[in-house]
Description:
The structure holds 2 protein chains of 2 kinds.
Chain A: H1 3-29, H2 34-53, H3 57-74, H4 82-103, H5 113-123, E1 144-152, E2 158-166, H6 180-191, H7 201-205, H8 214-225, E3 255-260, H9 276-282, H10 284-293, H11 299-324, H12 331-354, E4 356-358, H13 360-363, H14 366-377, E5 381-386, E6 391-393, H15 394-415, H16 419-424, E7 431-440, E8 443-450, H17 457-466, H18 472-477, H19 480-484, H20 508-517, E9 521-527, E10 531-539, E11 545-552, E12 555-560, E13 564-568, E14 575-578, E15 581-585, E16 591-596, H21 597-601, E17 614-618, E18 622-625, E19 627-634, E20 648-653, E21 659-663, H22 665-689
Parallel strand pairs in A: 3-5, 5-7, 12-21, 16-18
Antiparallel strand pairs in A: 1-2, 4-6, 7-8, 8-10, 9-10, 11-12, 11-19, 13-17, 14-15, 15-16, 17-18, 20-21
Chain B: H1 3-40, H2 46-99, H3 103-106, H4 109-162, H5 170-205
Helix pairs in contact in B: 1-2, 1-5, 2-4, 4-5
Amino acid sequence: MDMDILQDYLPEARELLEKAQDDTLRLESDPGNDEVLASVFRAFHTLKGGAGFLEAENLVNWTHHLEDLLDKLRSHTLVVTGPMIDAILRGLDVIDDMLQQLASGENPAPGPEDLSSIIRQLASGTTPADPVQPILPACAAPEATLKVSQRATANGQAGLFLERADATPSPDTGSDEISAEEFEATLDALYGTQAPGYAPAPESQCAASDEISPEEFEQVLDQLYGDKAPGFGTDTSSKAGDLPVNTTPGNPPVASVEAAPAPSPAAAPSPPSQPAAPTAVRSSSGAQETADATLRVDAARLDAVMNQVGELVLLRNRLSSAIGSLGEENEDMLRIAREVDLTVNDIQSTVMRLRMQPCKRLFQQLPRVVRDASRQLSKEVTLEIVGEDVEIDKAVVDALSGPMTHLLRNSLDHGVETPAERQAAGKSRSAKIRVAAVHLGDKVRIEVADDGRGIDSQFVMQKAIDKGVISAEQGARLSEQEAVELIFRPGFSTNDQVTDISGRGVGMDVVKETVRKLRGRLEIQTRPGLGTSISMEFPLTMAVLPVLYLRLRREIYALPVSSIESLLDLQENRIHRMSGRTVYRVDGTEVVPIVDLGALLHERPLRLGSEPIEGVLTEHGLFMVSEVLGNEDSVVKPIDFLAEQNWYQGATISGKGNVVLILDANALVNHVLDHHDDQANSNMARKGAA
Amino acid sequence: MNIQHIMGVVDASFKARQSIEKALREIDRRALNAMVLVKRHGNALAGYGVVAQAFRERAAILKESAAHLQERIAPLIEAYMRILQHQRFSASFAQMLEHNSLHEKHCPGLINTQKKWQKIMLEEEAEAGRVLEQLLEMVQQLQESIEEQEYVVTNGRIEAALAENTGAPLMRVSRDMGEAVRTVALAIRSYRHQLESLEHESSTRL
């Protein structure tokens, strides 16, 4: 296997796969769309061509079957049906597995024979006895099996033996004879395209003639050049943005997709009556221009550049600090420092943009998730996607794929009611799930909201107590919001039975942990009967972290600016005790727990009135510190040698060249809350013993 | 001039110092709050970021100036206390001379000594006057710095108005900044009145 070709092939194949999935889902609601049919066909065709270069025979065979099916759909020999969509989607999953095998250096294993057979039957125009089950493929056990073996015949020559074994004979398939299609399919399974005498159908049809048709000519060119032929181009004129698209009548009406804003089409759509081949040629120049304007770069190289920019930022900070200490005597130096500052900011911003990717990459898997899960749960859902073009750091896009699936599945399983329940509650039969990405200054907010039943905080708290996530005493002290947030605790699940969708209690805490690792912020809002919204806010870039330096007695620490609400002058008359916790009354409506950093980090509480104390208000609590020093853009250095659970996000080097620990505000607040609970418990135990 | 007057100036200095320090801390906190707000909004509030940075830098300069001001208070009070002490000495010499009509015969140096004390007192009063003048000049500079700070606050208000569509509460931040600057300005003005009344008192005596 040529590793260089593989390195080029894999990312392109994954993009094609994602696009093919997207297009296939669109076909479900718009089965006659020639553009989309052509696009899916081309995806399989290109995948097959690349796999041929890599000598991945099984992948070639697999894509060949799908290409064959799509070719017939494209030429309107066949009409798109629900089982076909299911088969294509499952076929895409198989290709995804094969690509993963390729990525790990293995030659892909053959695809599942049952699915292969179904796809071939669909392509041959026959309806498979047992159509594809979208979610539970294990249930799609064939009623009859064909057993093929190659062994010596009576005269000692090699022979091909075919046996049919009926598990549950049906009136239609009661005969021992097999059809010509089945035999062809079996041969394909055995030899793929290498069978002696094998020739694609169009060629065989024209074999008697000396003249070749344009399609045959195209195929010969494809075999010769793959997608490298002069004039060949990928049609990018798909119109994903023309949605909303409703489900086709006749298919199970479970999920529809709305996307806004629409991605701009790269080329004008061709009229449906025009053949596919000219369309591809017509759009080739645009595709070529796109190819010239973009450059595929190894992510590791970008990471290296980003790290170097991080070092540059640290050096800039040190330079600014050193020149700042010179005072206003040397104006030239001050001016140079300012210019360096601006230039480094520009470099940082440019390099940051290199790593940005549109949220479309993150969202494109979601329609499939909603489609499959809603079918399995027999719920009707409309998925609305907003802000696909909003860009965010690649690390966030990569890490958030799993959590987004978890969120949607949980929403479908727990939040969204069945159509009958919704009607009884005076709602529309079809629920709405909205996935949105919004720019908020230096952050991006990603929100998953449904109009389902909402979360019952009392029910969640009782479940948490039953499952031993919290004690009854702890539960009694929780506010309504804190009770709802129990769903993010490890091991929490409201489902007593584990299903394919949820119930293992491993989803939501993974979401929370992923958000924490990405230096993000997670928020949940729920209204009983009206719905739930879970929003995640992430910094635009992971490379640079603006921090606020603060002094705790003689030591300097840093807090991420993103977690800070404001800086306060502490007033003693606003400090209170409430439910065993020390809290601060910020204003008439906001009361937050106090985090005494002196007590926590020095084991010696700060004494108000006896030493200088300032307050830093964060989203979850008020931090008591000796002095707030100032802010700076820092670069986070991981501190791997500490325990998994600690109070630090990492370390940085300040402008003065000192190593400064960056505090994890959430971890500190949680520790204080848990510690108070422990203290309260031990106090109660002592009282009990007394 | 009397001891009560000087003690009044000492009290005023102490109060002014406390008030200025507190107000400057408040200014610094406001500036930091503004910078945090700016950082949380990315590049959208970059213009206001420059203003907030300038505000904080000016606050640091004000703090330094206020510290220098405090350094000049002690020599001034010391000079006036010495003048008071020498006035007492001079007064007691004058009393002694009044009670002894033959002082020129018995103590011929007494008048010379008294004249010498009076000369020293004049020198000390001149020195105290100079220190007071320097102090007033520093107060003047501090007031000019505060005016510059008010100018920065005005710029902040303009930037806040320009960035109104971002939804950041910059107008409130600018108003808070303005209030903190006004508190310092009031404290300095009150202190200046105290010093000027001392100057007036001293000059009439002199």
